[in-house]
Records
---
Amino acid sequence: MGAEVTAYILGEVMLRAKTEDRESNWIRARAVMVPGEYEVILSDSLMEEMGIEILKPSSGLWRFPGENRVRESEKASYWPD
């Protein structure tokens, strides 16, 4: 069984994937905040729209479509409450 979770829809944001040598197109997404959750969670459809191919989710390995370079996820960033 699941538990009830409070979530707040913060509105629309513009985002893109950006690395030192490449960036995706800007896309529109809805930002949702869950109190007590400090990591960013991206849906599979959002990652696809950003042009991100997940290779090894637990290891944080990914790439842009059409490239052979395997990239590592950024370290987690935390913001104050």
---
Amino acid sequence: MSETRHGVANLMTHDEMERLLEKCSCGRLGLNFQNEPYVVPVTYKYDQGRIFFHSAKQGKKVDFIKRNSRVCFEVDELQGDLGWATVICYGTATLREDIEAKKEFFEVVRGQKPSDEQLGKMAAYIGIVQIEDMTGRYRIGANPPA
């Protein structure tokens, strides 16, 4: 059973947080470099304590991760007029471009097994956030993620 905090929202259990992460497909990746915060939406897939996303090889997101791999990640779901659920994850992001990372990405995210040749032509980074901690809340009156 989730506990109430501040009389406004219920804390989610670990299982409830995982269900919301598995249910959603778009989240916000929070980055920081030299006191400049940056939040960017990403499509993702959650799998066994990790968040997988892909990225172009250039851009602000890549620059920030290369300089500071500590990140947060947020997903939320609106439920009716007043209900909501949210999970915030904290962890470390890595950017990989090796064939093994691309294979795992396609298997986890798309359920596909492309050839090494096809993967070698993929000009993108595979981003992996290793979750170290997470918190989740949902508004009283709303249901936790099912």
